[in-house]
Each structure stands twice: as structure tokens, then as C-alpha cells.
Specification:
Layout: H1 2-19, H2 22-46, H3 59-88, H4 91-114, H5 118-146
Length: about 150
């Protein structure tokens, strides 16, 4: 009995160790992120209408709720990651944030223009400017110090 209990503990420790492998966790997170991006592309081009929603009348309110939830999550992510990037003076992280912002707001502005929602093109340009200014300013100042 004692031996089997010990082997269970060893197995549990060994399996936890394998799950804590940084390469495995990075790969896992990256794969899930790529899947999210791919679904974003699908929804951007084909809409949520491709989903098996029985009552099509709820699509617009549901899409609005999803859009709001995504903005909340993305806003919290930018707030927290941005504060970490500036506090640590992490230029690489600031560049990554800038790339994500440019992709998000460029794609959104292009679809808004294509669909004739011109006010949102203006909103996207303004939001990109508001987020980009401090990032670009800090990135450039760091680059100037490194020269």
C-alpha cells in the first residue's frame, strides 16, 4: 500500500513537471492564439451568420454583446500589459503591442470603409493615434539612447 501511494505521488509530480514545461506551455498558448486569429478572419469575412444560431433575429444584439466583451477583454489586456511594458521599459513588448494595435485597427478600418461605416474609420484612426503615440515616443527615445 505504501509503495503504490508513493508511485502515485511520483507519477503526479512527474506529470505536473511535464505540464509545466515552458516550451510546451508556450506552444499551447501560441496554438490557441493562432486558432483565435483564424476564427477572427473567418468571422470578419463571413460573419457570425455562419454559426448555427436558430433565431437569426438575435444575431445583431448578440454580435453587439460579443463586440463589447471583446473590447472589454482587449482593453483590460492593453491596460495591464501596457503598464507592465512601460514600468519595465520593455521596448520589445511595446513593439508587439504596437503591431497588434496596427493590425486590429487597420483591419477594422478597412472593413468599416468597405461597408460604408465612415465614422468608425475616423474612430479607428483616433484610437490608433491615442494608443500609438506613447508607444512610438518611448520606442524612439530608447532607440535614440542606443545610438
Amino acid at each position: 500500500m505504501e509503495c503504490s501511494e508513493k508511485s502515485r505521488k511520483d507519477f503526479k509530480h512527474d506529470s505536473n513537471h511535464k505540464l509545466m514545461n515552458p516550451k510546451l506551455l508556450t506552444r499551447w498558448f501560441s496554438i490557441v492564439s493562432v486558432i483565435l486569429v483564424l476564427w477572427g478572419i473567418v468571422f470578419a469575412f463571413f460573419g457570425l451568420d455562419i454559426l448555427p444560431v436558430m433565431n437569426k433575429d438575435i444575431l445583431l444584439p448578440w454580435e453587439s454583446a460579443l463586440y463589447g466583451a471583446i473590447m472589454m477583454g482587449w482593453g483590460v489586456t492593453l491596460l495591464l500589459v501596457g503598464r507592465i511594458a512601460f514600468r519595465r521599459n520593455d521596448i520589445e513588448l511595446m513593439k508587439v503591442m504596437l503591431y497588434g494595435l496596427v493590425i486590429w485597427l487597420t483591419v477594422e478600418a478597412l472593413f468599416s470603409a468597405y461597408l460604408g461605416v465612415w465614422f468608425n474609420v475616423g474612430v479607428d484612426i483616433a484610437v490608433l493615434g491615442l494608443f500609438s503615440f506613447p508607444l512610438i515616443k518611448k520606442i524612439r527615445s530608447q532607440n535614440a539612447k542606443n545610438l
